[in-house]
Amino acid sequence: MNNEKVQIFDTTLRDGEQVPGCKLDTAQKIVIARRLDELGVDVIEAGFPISSPGDFKSVQEIGKVVENARVCGLTRAVKKDIEVAAEALKSARYPRIHTGIGTSDSHIKYKFNATREEIIERAVAAVSYAKSFVEDVEFYAEDAGRTDNEFLARVCEAAIKAGATVLNIPDTTGYCLPEEYGNKIKYLRENVRGIEKAILSCHCHNDLGMATANSIAGALNGARQIECTINGIGERAGNTSLEEVVMIMKQHPDLGLITDINTKLLYSTSQMVSESMGMPVQPNKAIVGSNAFAHSSGIHQDGVIKNRETYEIIDPAAVGVNASAIVLTARSGRAALAYRAKLVGYELTKLQLDAVYEQFLHVADKKKEVNDDDIHQIVEQSKIRVQASA
Ligand code: KIV
Ligand code: ZN
Fold it and tell me: Using an 8 Å Cβ cutoff, are 319 and 263 in contact?
């Protein structure tokens, strides 16, 4: 099977940074942008230049330092927005303007008090105007997830005619089911004249916990760009998580989809973003959470100690995590205790292990987690002769 590349469009610095409390200054954004470039993302959405002088400056400075990725600035379908974005992007080697407008009936009626025809006219005007500044213009149909497919196809067709190189189909409210979102992409591929001239892009929010599934469904139906953020941060429940979609494609080669991401940098990038935004990563977060490669139940620990693959589908080294962790709790078994005792210097015989295990359970019932110091104490206090393994 031929592998097809899916472009990774990172919007950590735009959609991600919109989160209350996650604001970054220009210097912090530059550090993250450099890391995203090193990680291998194809596009960095650096900000929304008209929104503030600080954001303008960030987009400008990021444009100066990014070497490989395209640098993108967001705009509304408003002339002034587009002019300001074009100005901010002048320093970028590969600039992209991301412009668009709401297309769902609810957006058309309540946000714009307009008609469908007027929305198409405004979309075309925005794309044509953006095209007068840069070659690479991405058009977004905001709330495409709740937009009627026939109308969405008309908007997309008009945007391509006006010069859009990428069509972003956002599930802005995170409403779609994976099958529904996948079918939307398929419908556009089959019903938009000129679609071969543009790349379809998924931009899914996580309000119902389906952003990752929806993005993958989109890619399986022909989208060749996924918009996502590190740690899945973003408005409300967040955006599609970059590390999740990338690892899904890597762990399922049968899908025939690949990215250029250096997955070994995923964990450290996640930590970097979490620390600079002051936004902790939930411990059970897929791929980069502190528990993603930790095992605490006796049955699982026994399996992992015998062979990691019994309970792990990803080699931790593939995402830059040192090793799987065997965490000692009251649910742990003898195999885990013997394994951890050996790591701290005690090679226990079967009889010794039985004695130490009794003590261990008493301690574990009182504590959430038994650490290396506890192991020393338990072994020493059980007054058995143990053989130092070192
Ligand atoms: O969620 C959304 O619709 C967006 C657009 C502005 C691209 O972030
Ligand atoms: Zn969004």
Answer: yes
| pLDDT tens digits for range 200-230 | 999 999 999 999 999 999 999 999 999 999 9
Residues 313 and 271 in one domain: no
The atom number, within ligand 1, closest to the CA of 140 reads 7
Distance from the CA of 80 to the center of ligand 1, in angstroms? Answer: 19
Q: Answer yes or no: do 311 and 344 share one domain.
A: yes
- The rounded distance, in Å, linking the Cα atoms of 71 and 94 is 6
**Ligand 1: residue whose CA is nearest its atom 1:** 172
Tell me if 171 CB under 6 Å of ligand 1: no
Task: Give a yes or no: residue 308 inside a domain.
Answer: yes
Residue where a domain stops, chosen among 218, 244, 277:
277
The DSSP element (H or E) to which 268 belongs, if any, is helix 266-277
- In contact, 185 and 200? CB cutoff 8 Å: yes
- For the chain, the distance separating the N- and C-terminal CA atoms, rounded to the nearest angstrom, is 50
Evaluate if residue 389 carries a pLDDT over 70.
no
Its domain, for residue 302, covers 294-381
Shared domain for 245 and 270, answered yes or no, is yes
Amino acid letter, 254: D
Question: pTM here?
Answer: 0.95
Is any atom of ligand 1 closer than 6 Å to the C-beta of 243?
Answer: no
Q: Which two tokens stand for residue 321?
A: 């995590």
